């Protein structure tokens, strides 16, 4: 009897579990069907008034606005280098020097030749002046007609000449000499000009034995050291104007078409959350292709360059390419099928959603301008 009662009790518990499981499953199924039949809640947004903006963004690199390549004007042995890469320098500061003994000797030789050329010019000028006086006296003698005695006395009752004129007349040739056409003063003047030019070149070469900073900035690179033999004209020091910095960035072709000089920009440097202001200073007229995408180089100038900028530092650049203020706007995700200045929205009216065509203005990153078809306060489905 005890075993029979135990078996019945076990069968009853099992049946109860089965019934309860079936009931629970039915409840879950009913809830699931009810959830599916219930309409999804709509996320709506009200049209309001405000600004609509369009920005394009990319990454870029900080670079100096000006970089100078400095070289010695003469070849020689480096005698001193007073800077190294990373040093900040002032305008006019001496940066490096080569042995200038030969260049100094060349200046001395050129100045000596110039002095000799000037002496020859003075001599030629004196000779020409004397010859001019003789020619003048001879001309006077020829116009007066009578024969003159040595000492200036006239024969035949003619007018006597003064002492200087008489002396010049005595030097008059008795017969003509051929004119060679040479001008000793002109020749001497040409020699002076050539010697003067040689002095200028020599002095410039002597100055070129020293490199001085033409601008204030930062030394980017030094190509040699003391004792090196350097040729003239080869870059020895690279100097960057780090007081006027800019960002060079490449924008995709789709974005570059909207970029123009003067547009406002925001710059965020690597490892910094500070937003710096700037503006577009240059848009390259030709793009470059990597085989997949065409990009255009853009230069963005800082409105106020921070003092701690580093050459080559990376930066995020965002340029505002479009903006309208105080217009009727809705979220851009609410506007579909935009074409030819119009688009489609779903307007909520009570429990209904009504599709409506609206006129679209500027389509921004977050909002789209609605120029007709909606009023401020109208509710539209945010995303559909």
TrEMBL record:
Q: Name one Pfam family in it.
A: RND-MFP_C
- InterPro entries for this protein: MdtA-like_BSH (IPR058625), MdtA-like_C (IPR058627), UPF0194_transport (IPR050465)
- Which stretches are annotated as coiled coil? 100-134
Q: Which SUPFAM superfamilies match?
A: HlyD-like secretion proteins
Q: Single GO cellular component annotation?
A: cell envelope
Q: Does the keyword Transmembrane apply?
A: yes
Subcellular locations according to the entry: Cell envelope
| UniProt keyword annotation of Nucleotide-binding present | no
Q: Where is the Multidrug resistance protein MdtA-like barrel-sandwich hybrid domain?
A: 74-235
Which of UniProt's keywords are assigned here?
A: Coiled coil, Membrane, Transmembrane, Transmembrane helix
Provide the leader sequence positions.
none
Q: Where are the transmembrane segments?
A: 12-31
Residues in domain Multidrug resistance protein MdtA-like C-terminal permuted SH3? Answer: 326-381
Per its UniProt record, what PANTHER family does this chain match?
A: BLL5650 PROTEIN, EFFLUX SYSTEM COMPONENT YKNX-RELATED
Tell me the protein's name: Multidrug transporter
What is the native source organism of this protein?
Answer: Actinoplanes utahensis
What does the organism's lineage look like at the top?
A: Bacteria, Bacillati, Actinomycetota, Actinomycetes, Micromonosporales
């Amino acid at each position: 009897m005890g075993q029979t009662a135990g078996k019945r009790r076990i069968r009853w518990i099992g049946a109860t579990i089965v019934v309860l499981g079936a009931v629970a499953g039915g409840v879950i199924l009913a809830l699931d069907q009810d959830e599916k039949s219930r309409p999804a809640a709509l996320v709506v947004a009200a049209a309001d008034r405000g600004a609509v903006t369009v920005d394009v963004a990319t990454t870029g690199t900080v670079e100096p606005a000006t970089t100078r390549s400095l070289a010695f004007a003469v070849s020689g042995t480096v005698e001193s280098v007073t800077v190294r890469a990373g040093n900040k320098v002032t305008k006019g500061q001496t940066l490096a020097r080569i042995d200038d003994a030969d260049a100094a000797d060349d200046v001395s030789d050129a100045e000596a030749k110039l002095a000799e050329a000037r002496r020859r010019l003075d001599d030629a000028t004196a000779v020409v002046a004397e010859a001019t006086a003789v020619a003048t006296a001879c001309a006077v003698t020829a116009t007066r007609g009578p024969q003159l005695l040595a000492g200036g006395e006239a024969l035949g009752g003619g007018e006597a000449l003064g002492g200087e004129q008489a002396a010049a007349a005595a030097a008059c040739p008795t017969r003509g000499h051929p004119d060679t056409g040479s001008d000793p003063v002109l020749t001497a003047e040409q020699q002076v000009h050539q010697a003067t030019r040689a002095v200028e070149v020599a002095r410039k070469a002597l100055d070129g034995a020293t490199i001085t900073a033409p601008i204030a900035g930062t030394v980017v690179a030094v190509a040699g050291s003391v004792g090196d033999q350097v040729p003239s004209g080869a870059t020895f020091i690279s100097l960057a104007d780090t007081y006027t910095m800019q960002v060079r960035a490449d924008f995709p072709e789709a974005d570059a078409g909207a970029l123009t000089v003067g547009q406002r920009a925001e710059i965020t440097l690597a490892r910094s959350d500070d937003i710096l202001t700037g503006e577009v200073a240059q848009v390259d007229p030709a793009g470059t292709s990597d085989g997949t995408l065409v990009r255009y180089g853009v230069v963005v100038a800082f409105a106020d360059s921070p003092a701690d900028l580093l050459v080559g530092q990376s930066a995020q650049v965002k340029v505002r390419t479009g903006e309208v203020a105080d217009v009727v706007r809705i979220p851009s995700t609410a506007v579909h099928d935009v074409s030819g200045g119009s688009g489609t929205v779903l307007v909520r009216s009570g429990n209904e959603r009504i599709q409506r065509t609206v006129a679209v203005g500027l389509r921004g990153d977050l909002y789209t301008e609605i120029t007709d078809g909606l009023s401020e306060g109208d509710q539209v489905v945010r995303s559909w």
